[in-house]
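Good morning,

Both structures are done.
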Amino acid sequence: MSPVDYIRSRPPPRTQNKSLALPSHNMGLSDSEKAAISSLWEKIAPEASKLGAESMSRLFQNHPDAKSFFSRFDLTPGSQDLLTHGGKIFNALGDATKNLDSLSKYQDLHTNKLKVPGGHMKVRGIM
């Protein structure tokens, strides 16, 4: 089974109350773990927009309150808005795979620039 098929086959994550506090220091990943993450990303990258749109659809299905942050979007599964924004999200994940030792810029983006309330900065589940 390809990594993309594996991700698609996973059930939606269950809500978990884990903070999204991203460390600004070294995450403690070994070089081989970083290489594995990069290798996996290379397989996922060609499907970034499609997988991102699917992830956003799952988010809205499981957490309808999140729709309020995307009121100007067409939230229909597979819409161009979801493909575009989902692609941006997944491509940011790809960028993060190149900077695993410093992820603080993503936390800063959401809290300071996008003004996402702290209560919404929770990891809902892990793939």
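Second structure follows.
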Amino acid sequence: MAAMDAVSPPDDRVPVSVLTGFLGSGKTTLLNHILTQTHGKKIAVIENEFGAVGIDDELLKANTKMQSEDEIIEMMNGCICCTVRQDLVVVLQKLAKRVAAGELALDGIVIETTGMADPAPVAQTFFVEESVQKFARLDGIITLVDAKHVEQHLDEEKPEGAENEAVEQVAFADRLIVNKVDLVTDDDLARVEQRLRGINAFAPIVRSERSRVSVDQVLGIGAFDLTKTLEMDPAFLDTDAEHEHDDSVSSVSITTPGDVHMLLVNDWISDVLQNKGADIYRMKGVLSIAGAPEKFVYQAVHMIFDGEFEGAWAPGEARTNKLVFIGKRLDKAALEAAFAGCLDAPANRAKIDAVQRVKVMERQQNALLGAAQRDDVVAIRGILASGADPAFANAVGQTPLHIAALWANLKACEALVAAPGVNLDARNQLGGQTPLHMLASRYDKDVEKRAPCCAILLKAGCNPAVANDQGQVPRDFVDAAASPEAATLASMLEPGK
């Protein structure tokens, strides 16, 4: 614990609880219960109504008056997961300004979503909006479940391509409050809870009548603070129990001792998020990275990933990786096999060597792009001599020759066109432009260098008749009347000349 405290200073951002649940599950009743309890906390409530007229709003405001102005209510109309997500950002920024100005002190924020909302975009707001990240942190997603009616919502047939909101709300939950337990039998309740665990095996279940639960079950639960959660419950990411799984949505855990290689696990997570991100509602876990004294703790909501090193491994503590996936069509065996391929182990040595070579090559190639922009011919020749590929392109398809031509760097162009393997007419992803297009696009910049650079490219074999995606040839970019240098460049670029 001492090591953990030394590494991870207290997080003084305002904790945010997202309260979700299908229509009629008891969310507003729970909020009213919180507002009328004597808990001494100053809470901002962000209420979301699906429709222009807010009925719950008046109920909440009435109870807020009993709390000595400690609570602030902000209203938004529409579905918080789509049309008004930006409104949520605006509301949070407004609260942040009041707190920063000393006008307001907050112990927490509760966001109540409409019953039709998918909680994922709400959660993602706290990872992708920088201003929100600085002010507030996601503390947990609490899903209310109507014990009497939840099964029919989970079983509801949706049109092709539409998501079952009730299933998603259960899948995303950090805590499940099974409400209205007084309306069902013990057997019904056991069946409902088994069904819920089949979708989300990792969210603790709290039973309630009339939404009456302790405030501590909703506020400050630290569910999105995996380090804190694991301190309180070391077995949080373990699951040995078998549950009946929903046909489409389930939860999977992986526990693997040993260290993972950072490059391998980075590539694997990137692949999972890119190819399965739409199907994975939540990912969270703790990784033991080879050579790192600290635990790597991460969260992901769909394709939004957030992770950092938090807290040292204690002396004698077994370095073990614990991962949780909640989503659709999860293949546990495939996930386990793929993760095993990330271990820093002799069996993966060939993969580790290969990915390290790739990273070295990527650094070389990026250095080549930089040298082309600087017109550093000494560096270009050295990098090419070390084996760098002159045809390498960056994320938008720009090769070193594109870069050198764009800046009319004469020495760089001379060195690159002479390199074995260079692609003189490579088309980038910025509209299919060739190096000649890039040269012509800035015909009015460094005008004295454009024609000499063009001569180098044409002599090497660059083809001025190659068109871009819009059917334009390099000559089309140049206004010959702009200057004598532009006229010379335009004449040189005439196709067939």
